[in-house]
Design brief:
Largest sheet: 7 strands, parallel
Strand order of the largest sheet: 5-4-3-2-6-1-7
Structural class: alpha/beta
Number of strands: 7
Oligomer: single chain
CATH class: Alpha Beta
Shape: globular
Strand content: 15-25%
Helix content: 25-40%
CATH architecture: 3-Layer(aba) Sandwich
Number of helices: 7
CATH topology: Dihydrofolate Reductase, subunit A
Mean pLDDT: 82
């Protein structure tokens, strides 16, 4: 194993042992999973438990410029993020995060299973060379709308991605309530949302978040605020 990965996992293990501040979240996740299991047996559908996790500068921004990567998190917060990933069934980001950061969305800094990667992509701009298509054990689930080109759907499905066409909202984006119902239907009981800014703001404005984990470093990014205009 790469020494850097081993060291990261050791730090992640220490984070898991000392993450008492996350225990309330873990207890809620366990309770929700039990309740979701009972409801599944009764064929009832309930949306997943949604955890929002992101780093925010002290001036309320998460990026220096729109659609530009900008590191705000410390090593400890990265460890915490991977610990949180390991405790959720699925991990959701928007297409801009994929295009900007080309993330892997795996658990690498602690022990635990990889969550199902989920991407909101209303016009199906997902690149065929994205690292998510080389995920070690889970192909991405891409939630799109009828704006997606049929040839792109076929091309991404040929690479292993699963595509679901869902209703649009008033802004022609993937309807979040429909997305959560779709995830519940495939057995996702807990969902972690990591970004980007537009996705975070939409979940908050629509009051679809059950728990927030926010990292605030003491620096300013100079970017715009991502949150709702009246928090």
């Amino acid at each position: 194993m790469d020494t850097r990965i081993s060291e990261a996992r050791e730090r992640g293990g220490a984070m898991a042992e000392n993450a008492s501040f996350l225990q309330a979240l873990f207890d809620r996740l366990a309770r929700h999973a039990r309740e979701a299991g009972r409801e599944a047996a009764g064929r009832a559908t309930r949306r997943p438990f949604v955890t929002l996790s992101y780093a925010q500068s002290i001036d309320g921004s998460i990026a220096a410029r729109p659609s530009r990567p900008f590191a705000l998190s410390s090593e400890e917060s990265f460890d915490m993020t991977h610990l949180l990933r390991s405790r959720h069934d699925a991990l959701l980001v928007g297409i801009n995060t994929v295009l900007t950061d080309d993330p892997r969305l795996t658990v690498r800094r602690c022990a635990g299973d990889n969550p199902q990667p989920v991407v909101l992509d209303s016009r199906l701009r997902f690149p065929v060379d994205a690292r998510l298509l080389t995920h070690p054990d889970r192909y991405p689930l891409i939630l799109t709308t009828d704006q997606a080109d049929a040839s792109e759907i076929r091309r991404l499905e040929a690479r292993g991605a699963e595509i679901r066409v869902l209703p649009r909202d008033g802004a022609d984006r993937v309807d979040l309530a429909a997305a959560l119902r779709c995830l519940a239907d495939i057995g996702v009981a807990s969902l972690m949302v990591e970004g980007g800014a537009g996705v975070i703001g939409s979940f908050l404005r629509q009051r679809l978040v059950d728990h927030c984990v926010i990292t605030v470093p003491f620096c300013g990014s100079g970017g715009g605020s991502f949150g709702p205009s009246n928090p």
